[in-house]
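REQUEST ID: PR-0412
SUBMITTED BY: lab tech R.K.
PRIORITY: routine
TASK: structure prediction, single protein chain
INPUT:
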Amino acid sequence: MQRSGAEPSTHHPAPRQQRPRPRLRWVASPPPGAVPRRRAVAAKPYDGPPSYPVPPRWGFPNLVWRRPTTVPGTASGAVRPIDRIPVLAQSLRTILWTFAVLALAAAGSEVWRYVLLVQSRDSALSTSVVGFSDAFVVTAGLLTTILSLLPAGLSVWWLLVARQAAADESGVEPARPVWQVLVGVLVPIANLPLALSVVGELEHSILRRPRDERPKPSRLVLLWWGAWNVNWVMLVVTVIWRLRPGVQAMADSVVLVAITDVTAAALAILTALVIRRFSDLLMPIAPDRLRTLRVLKVDGAPAPELHTARPVGAAR
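STATUS: complete
OUTPUT:
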C-alpha cells in the first residue's frame, strides 16, 4: 500500500552476522604398531686400539701446511703484519750483524792506516804495504757505505710493520701517523730527538700499556738512542773535518773515520738487540725455542690394565 503524497519505502532485510570459523589443525600420526621400534644395541666392551691385517692405505696427503689462497681477495689470502715479523726480523738481524762486522773491519783498516802514518814520520814504508793498506781502506769503506743502505731501509720497513702489528694485537691505533714516523727517523737533525719518541712509543704499544700513560723507554732503548745520536754526530763532524786542508787534518780525519765506523757497528748491534726484544714480545713463543718434551717418569698413576686376550686380526 502506498499513501498519496508520501515517498515509497522499501524494506531491507538485516545482514546476517557471520560466525567465526573455528581454527583447526590437522595432525597426521601413524597408528600404533605401524612403525617398528628400533632395537637397543648393547654397548660392546673395549677391545683395545684398532688393528689391521695389512698396513692401511688411507691417510693424510704428504704435503706441508700452507696458507689458504684458494679464494683470492678474501681475508684468508691476506698476510697479517704479525705474520711478517719473524721472517723480517730474522733477515734483518743477520744483515745488521754482517754490517757490524764489516764496519769493524773498516775501522781496523783506518787504524792500520794511522799506524802507517805514524811510522812514516821516522822511516820509509814499503810500497806493497802502503798499496795493500790503501786498497783495504777503500774496499772496506765502499762496502760499508753501500751496505749501510740495506739495513737502514729494512729497519724502517720493520718499524712500520711492527707498529701495525702492535696496533692490531692491542686494539689501539698508533700514537702518530706514518709520515711523522718517517720524519722522525729519516730527516737529519729532526731525527736526533724524535727517534727516541718513535721507538719508545712502539715499545709502549708492544707492552700494551695504557695509551694515556707517558711512555717510559727501557734501558736498551736508551742505549740505542745514545748510539744513534753519537753515530750521527760523528758522521757530521767527520764530513766537516775532512773538508779542512793540511796534513794534520788528514791524519785527524783518519781517526774520526775509525771512530765513526765503531759507532756505526755499535748502533747496528744495538738495533739488532732491540729488534730481537720487540719481536720476542710480539711473538712470545719463538719456533727456535720450542723443545720436544719426553715423558721420563710417571708418579702416582694407576697401573695400566693388562689385556690377557689378543683381539682377532691384531699383529703380534
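NOTES: The radius of gyration is 41 Å.
REVIEWED BY: pending
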